[in-house]
Amino acid sequence: MKFSKRSFYTFVCLQVFLFFSINLGCLQAGASGRETDELALLKFKQGITSDPHGIFNSWNDSLHFCHWTGITCGRSHQRVTSLVLEGQNLFGSVSPYIGNLSFLRLINLQNNSLRGEIPQQLGKLFRLQKFFVNNNSLNGTIPLNLTRCFQLNTIYLQRNNLAGKIPEELGSLPKLEKLGLCNNHLTGEIPPSLGNLSSLTTFSATFNDLEGSIPNEMGRLKSLNSFAVGVNRLSGIIPPSLFNITSLSSLVFAANQLSGSLPDNIFFTLPNLQAFLLQRVDMGGNKFVGQVPTNLGNLQSILRLKFEFNNLGSNSSNDLLFLTSLTNCSNLQIFSITRNNFAGVLPDSVANFSTGLIRLYMGGNEITGIIPAAMENLVNLIDLQLEENLFTGFIPSQFGKLQKLQSLILSYNQLSGQIPSSIGNLTQFSRVLLSGNKLEGSIPSSIRNCQHLYAVQIAENRLSGELPEEVLGLTSLSKVLNLAFNSFTGHLPTEVGKLKNVNTLDISENNLSGEIPETIGGCLSLEYLYMQGNFFQGTIPSSLASLKGLQYLDLSRNNLSGQIPKDLQEIPYLQYLNLSFNDLEGEVPERGVFTNASALSLIGNNKLCGGVPELGLPKCPTKLLKKVKSHTLKLVVAIACVVPTLLSILIFFLIRRMRKSRTKPSVAPLEMNHLLKVSYKDLYQGTDGFSCSNLIGSGGFSSVYKGFLPQVQTPVAVKVLNLEQTGAIKSFMAECNSLGSIRHRNLVKLVTCCSSLDYKTNAFKALIFEYMGNGSLEKWLHPCAEGEDQKRSLNLLQRLNIAIDVASALHYLHDLCGKPIIHCDLKPSNVLLDDDMVAHVSDFGLAKLFSINSNLSLSQISTTRINGTVGYVAPGN
Ligand SMILES: *[C@@H]1O[C@H](CO)[C@@H](O)[C@H](O)[C@H]1NC(C)=O
Ligand SMILES: *[C@@H]1O[C@H](CO)[C@@H](O)[C@H](O)[C@H]1NC(C)=O
Ligand SMILES: *[C@@H]1O[C@H](CO)[C@@H](O)[C@H](O)[C@H]1NC(C)=O
Ligand SMILES: *[C@@H]1O[C@H](CO)[C@@H](O)[C@H](O)[C@H]1NC(C)=O
Ligand SMILES: *[C@@H]1O[C@H](CO)[C@@H](O)[C@H](O)[C@H]1NC(C)=O
Ligand SMILES: *[C@@H]1O[C@H](CO)[C@@H](O)[C@H](O)[C@H]1NC(C)=O
Ligand SMILES: *[C@@H]1O[C@H](CO)[C@@H](O)[C@H](O)[C@H]1NC(C)=O
Ligand SMILES: *[C@@H]1O[C@H](CO)[C@@H](O)[C@H](O)[C@H]1NC(C)=O
Ligand SMILES: *[C@@H]1O[C@H](CO)[C@@H](O)[C@H](O)[C@H]1NC(C)=O
Ligand SMILES: *[C@@H]1O[C@H](CO)[C@@H](O)[C@H](O)[C@H]1NC(C)=O
Prior knowledge:
It is found in: Membrane. This protein is α/β, with parallel strands linked by helices.
């Protein structure tokens, strides 16, 4: 070691200085403070259990902690000033050591999956200014000690699982500007002390369980810009002082139990100009009464104004006077007064609302008069809902000009005349609900141009003529086609089979006749089919049995004859079958829906016999010879199917005797309710938004992603079902249930299921399995040249073990798990290998899961319709 003179002197001086200094302790703290920071960061790292993006790789000895990912230090003191690890998919908890990072000014851990409590030790961070932990899974309460960080300017705690009260002490943070608490489970009242937060601009506490009234003190928040307390249990009146705040731009009170009337001077307690900033007022879903003030036109900036679901208006003719003033709100986009007590004629002035208006909701009032044709001016309208009022007159044909209209809801009014053919002009049209009016004529054939329609309801009108083929050919229909209670005549066109996506078809209570076309079996997504109260004749088409998702079927009060098709008993989820008052004959089947007399109505068919005893029908005459013949055929098929299975089971037993030790007894059945609850959000976060980089496989029916869940420490495989067929929804839950109740070391373990709505409110179904580190057997047997970095191969012992594993799984499925289950699609790509090369059978139940009553034996199973194979079939290679 070599010292320059200069550094030598510096060194000596320093020693001398230190010796005499009373600041000795302080300076040492500079060095040990850095050690404390490093230790605290390492402890923080320890608290994180999963780091899929590998950001902690850089947190190692070879690098000064100031250069670790997400860390910023002060230049001179080299102490940690900010910790920013947002949106990194981190799992784990926040270490209390974070409280030792005493120079921290910014903590940003938002959009991760952190859980556990927010440590009280944060209270030691007296320099902390911004604290973001929103969008995690943190629980416990808001730490009281956080209120000791007097420099705090932003606290974002929204989207967690925090419970308990909002601490009164938050009101003592003089610099607090933004307080985000929404989407938690907070209870108790809003503390009046928050009125002390003179810098507060944003207060959001929507989606909690807050109660009590909104404190008057909130009116003292002179800088307040956004105040959102929707979806809580708040009661009492809105403190008038709140409307005195000139800086407000957004007020959300929706879905509480607030009451009182809206004062005449509601937004204008100060003269002029003061409400200029207000863009959003949502008072929906409360108990407000009285008239709406007529000076709302002063809300120059307003974009959204919602009064829906209250008790405003007084069922009198001047209730809607305030609408005219709204024509001054030139930015209005969304306006709703749905479900109040407004009466009177809809003024023509609605046609002069802002042309920027996209949603207009006035349903569920007592509004009279005609629908003003001049509303054609509202050219940006996407959604127009005027249902459940007292409108008379015609549907204006001018609406054909509303090129952006997607949804038109006019149900339950007193509209008459024809449906204007100009609706064919509405190419974006997706939902038209006109039930419960006095509409006549037919449905205009121009409707064929509306290629995005997913719901059509024109029931309970006076429509007549034949059912237009154009409507039945609308393959886009997915939710419902309801034409019940009209006067349609003629046949049901064969085009009905094109409704492949529709969930509910209701053509009941018309005057339809002729046979029910076999093509109805093409409506593969049907769950509800209503055809009762017509004059249909001929036999019940057996093609109905191909509607595997069907739950309700009503064919009553027609002239149907012949036998009940046996195949109807194979519809797995049918829970209501009404065939009453027809002319059916012969034997009633005894399985499926026919086992449950309360789900079944057969009265008014005098020639039926047999069925389960509860039906009380006469016995059928003994069976004919030709039936025996078909039974023999089935028996042959049965034997052909069963023998290979028995053989494989036999071989299995032989092998097992050779290698007794390998198989463990199977675990007791696990009920579905004990499984984890997993939300779409969890899965979305856990798979990085279902990103391509996490995609580990896909097929026609599903895509599989690798992911992490906050509730599970190990990685999981998330199998997302491709739900283009809505009929598959019910069968999903049942499959999920069956899979949930079986467990074996050689079956891929189902962790849980998720059935929910995705962010676009589409149905979303996923199965979550254990992740298998070594991929499929297929990949090991036939490694494809490209893509595989190293050649994989299996030795003889591994191959034997895999064979035994698969055999054990089959043995369990067929014989040991209560209801026998036939895999039907066993092949190497469906055998997955875990990290220890133990084989797990997967991918069963998605398309072909057969769960049979336990009193039936395997040989009987094979007489039912099985599309796959009972035993092992390798693909042709
Ligand atoms: C430490 O982190 C640096 C920076 O990321 C990295 O290059 C290095 O490989 C890491 N060292 C170890 C031992 O992980
Ligand atoms: C994190 O969340 C915020 C709002 O909570 C959002 O604006 C931002 O885009 C998100 N960031 C990431 C990386 O997901
Ligand atoms: C830091 O924090 C932890 C836990 O809060 C504590 O046990 C530890 O002693 C503190 N001090 C230092 C110097 O690490
Ligand atoms: C929550 O975090 C996830 C994961 O980073 C992100 O994709 C999502 O957009 C965030 N949600 C919100 C509402 O900020
Ligand atoms: C918070 O979550 C952790 C695990 O994430 C759990 O152990 C603890 O009991 C929860 N605490 C509360 C108060 O719910
Ligand atoms: C929380 O604050 C109190 C004082 O209000 C203090 O006594 C306590 O030690 C703090 N807790 C932690 C864990 O820092
Ligand atoms: C804060 O508000 C509460 C209740 O409104 C009040 O009693 C208290 O004196 C205020 N504190 C300060 C420091 O202003
Ligand atoms: C609103 O402000 C005005 C003028 O400052 C004041 O006279 C009035 O009392 C305030 N109203 C409420 C309810 O605070
Ligand atoms: C509104 O008033 C009419 C009579 O003008 C009455 O028939 C109707 O029942 C009233 N509706 C409600 C909801 O009070
Ligand atoms: C159909 O839309 C066009 C605008 O694209 C409009 O000019 C025409 O008048 C509309 N026809 C009817 C019948 O409304």
